[in-house]
Amino acid sequence: MSHKHATDFFKLESGPAEGPKSHTEGRVIMEFSNLNWKMAKMRIGQGIEEGIHLLKSELSGNNFSWNQGKVPGDVYTDLYLAGELEDPHFGRNMHKAKWVQEYEWWYNYAFNIDQSFGGKNITLSFEGVDYSCEVWFNQEYLGKHEGMFSKFEFDITDLVNWTTPPTPVNLLTVKLNPPPKNQRNIAGLKHNFSGDYLTGLIPFGIWQPVKIIGTEKVKIDNYRVEYELDGKKVNVALQVNADTFATVKNANLVVRYLDEGKEIIKVKKEINFNRGRELTKHIQFSIENPKLWWPAGMGDPFLYDIEISIVEQGRVLDKIVEKTGIRTVKYSFNPGFTHDEVEFPWTLNINDKPMFMRSACWTQPSFFYGRNSKEKYEYFLEKAKEANINNLRFFGWHPVETRDFYDICDRLGITVWTNFAFATQEFRSDRAYLDKVTKEVISIVRERRNHPSTVMWMGGEEVYFTEAHVHSHNRELMEMIGDLTRSMTNVHYADASPLSSREGVRMGYKPKDSKHANSHYYAAGATFMEDFYPTLDVAVVPELTAASSPNVESLKKFIPENELWPLGKSFGYHMADLHVLQNLNYEVHGSIGMDSLEQFVEYTQVAQGTIAQFALEHFRRQKPHVSMVALCHFNTNWPIIKWDIVDYYGQKKRSFDYVKRAYNPILPSLEFKKRRYDNGETFKGQLFVINDYYKKYNDVDLEYQVLDNDGNELLSGSIRIDVGENVSEGYDYIKFDIPENWKGFFYIKLALKQNGELIMDNEYRLLVDNQERAKEEAKKLYLKMHEWRKEFGKGYYRYFPEMFEDL
């Protein structure tokens, strides 16, 4: 969308239509990402009716007393900073903020343009607005936009006021429309705002950067780079897409790779282009002995600078410089499955080396975009790397991530599984909707495809999950998205997760491609972990969950003091499945852990860690038959009592250490059939070593030690083994009888050593108890949980039936 002219009256009022001639070559940018915006509430239609869009920039103008605004940001955060909203995170305040989504919100940004833009074509660029908006510049209507993820731009060359008085004279005006409320209409165009860990409050705002870009005759819009290893060299295929503002003959497309400023290669290609036509050019070349980009644990995630410029007679018309990592992404079939069981390849190969994805589900640091920052992304992603996570998967409930996220993952060597924003519903299939989806998918892929961390694209999350889905056009939509994605990148695409649900199989998918391992959590008490996870025989497990409470210090930040203990309604509002948590406490500890707040917090965190350890190690021991498992979640986007192992405030739970250990690239591991053993009963478990490194460990000692609840040793031993690279191998068994005087818990410790130096250790806490009797007690808790759901509903009211007594 563009606007090429203004009225003669406008030109007279706003000063010269053309700025000074610029001596600055190439691209110049003014960023509008700051706190200098103004924002105000209007009734629907009021802004246009009163002419808010026609206001000019004045020192004490109409918007002088508007609230301060922040971009990138969101409406709720701006109102919170202005004192118009209480902290939406505290207590049950999110519901009190729902009035915000009933209004339109007007944003102004005033500025003087830098003289370096003189003589250039000037583009106003929005990298993302959630969800729909209309835009004016210096009282001229530019257009409207719909869709959270797609970039949109306007040509404002002829509208700029070039005068530079002390008061800014250019005024950008944005009207944010009230957000849509029917998710079915905007699936894929906006992320979910309602579900089992969301309140239904709908976020919206100018959530991505806004800037103006000045270029000469041509503007590079996007590019695509693909790599193919060829012995000691890499073959590069580069496609450059650009917008043209003039006709140019005998220009050059110039590409340079730099290593810390040192030029590695420079190639150029002569090009011609005509005004007003999209320019698409291809260039191919090879780089000898390149440094490759590797995921963490496989090598150095090395990044080159790639410089792409268009040059005419020695003058740079436009230039972009970005980071690039040279790597190939391919997928191979997991061994041990037939083609009747698995349809798709699931083993990730980076630079032709298989990699087990030690994954976790990810979401933005905050549901409210204005509370996010590059520093927060850095912090949480560093914590993910500390937890030995080498892949992050964000699924269709959450926004497709920002450039900052991908840039940091590139640098840290964390691979990314990118889901489009389709989740858990039946989607529309009409042409108008599909056209909108196409636009969003194209923008999403173009903006993210060149990041070396990008290793998987996926259409939907739980879109083959209900009877309605079976009879829908969901599969056709996911396949359409796949065709679009594959036309723009060589990185692998898969339709959805899971594929092998009961409904997915009915829709034609194979039974062992992928399943979510969440039933143990949702049906807590019905089945113990050791009876559930080993029954899943699938190539990948994209979700596996347990939950816990944040630390007491974090709870105090969002739970009112009078609701901390006994647990009050705000616990339920912040998504605590209290019966589930108590049932899992019983399974892990033999007690529901409700004697105090401190006990509840500790018990839930240890239970979450214990379940994660058991499940993650189980699936890792199955490699290469299984090639990926993802803990759901690593973090959450508002303070809840749920699945995260690093809470909203960045505090690690005890479960973090369990996951960090279970995900260590090399790990001594123990396979056992159950967690409870009666006095006199025989324990038997097999020793394993899991090694994700491409490094052999010869002549290492695998030591084991069995201790009672007081730390007294019952048994110890050691075996000398060789460990191959990138393997999971089983060795000897540990076998012993539980002494008659043991009570409570017992511990088994493992250590892998070489020449007396510790490589990695591990530890398991098991119970002295009767397994079948414990299962019976757990089943009673499970049935009670469902009785309460039936009587009081599925919402959190069921945990506080006394609230109905005073009605």
Name the strands of the widest sheet in spatial order: 27-26-25-24-23-30-29-28
- Beta content: 25-35%
Shape: globular
Class based on secondary structure composition and strand pairing: alpha+beta
Q: What does the radius of gyration come to?
A: 29 Å
Largest sheet: 8 strands, parallel
**Ranges with pLDDT <50 over ≥5 residues?**
1-17
Query: Would you tell me the overall average pLDDT?
Result: 94
Distance between the termini: 56 Å
Report helical residue fraction. Answer: 10-25%
Helix count from the secondary structure assignment: 19
How many DSSP E strands? 38
Give structural notes.
This protein has 807 residues and is of the alpha+beta class. Helix content is 22%, strand content 33%. The chain is built from 19 helices and 38 strands. Strands 27-26-25-24-23-30-29-28 form an 8-stranded parallel beta sheet. Strands 3-2-4-9-6-7 form a 6-stranded antiparallel beta sheet, covered by helices on one side. A hairpin with a 2-residue loop joins strand 21 (347-350) and strand 22 (353-355). Helix 16 runs antiparallel to helix 19. The longest helix has 25 residues, at 597-621. The radius of gyration is 29 Å and the shape is globular.
Topology:
Layout: H1 8-14, E1 28-31, E2 37-42, H2 46-49, E3 67-69, H3 75-81, H4 93-96, E4 104-111, E5 121-126, E6 132-137, E7 140-146, E8 152-155, E9 170-176, H5 183-186, E10 194-195, E11 198-199, E12 210-215, E13 218-230, E14 233-244, E15 248-259, E16 262-273, E17 279-288, E18 304-312, E19 315-324, E20 329-332, E21 347-350, E22 353-355, E23 357-361, H6 374-386, E24 391-394, H7 403-412, E25 415-419, H8 431-448, E26 454-461, H9 467-470, H10 474-486, E27 493-497, H11 502-506, E28 514-517, H12 519-522, H13 529-532, E29 540-545, H14 552-558, H15 569-573, H16 578-589, H17 597-621, E30 628-632, H18 654-662, E31 666-672, E32 676-677, E33 682-691, E34 697-707, E35 713-723, E36 727-737, E37 745-754, E38 757-768, H19 771-792
Parallel strand pairs: 23-24, 23-30, 24-25, 25-26, 26-27, 28-29, 29-30, 32-38
Antiparallel strand pairs: 1-12, 2-3, 2-4, 4-9, 5-8, 5-12, 6-7, 6-9, 10-11, 13-14, 14-17, 15-16, 15-18, 18-19, 20-21, 21-22, 31-33, 33-36, 34-35, 34-37, 37-38
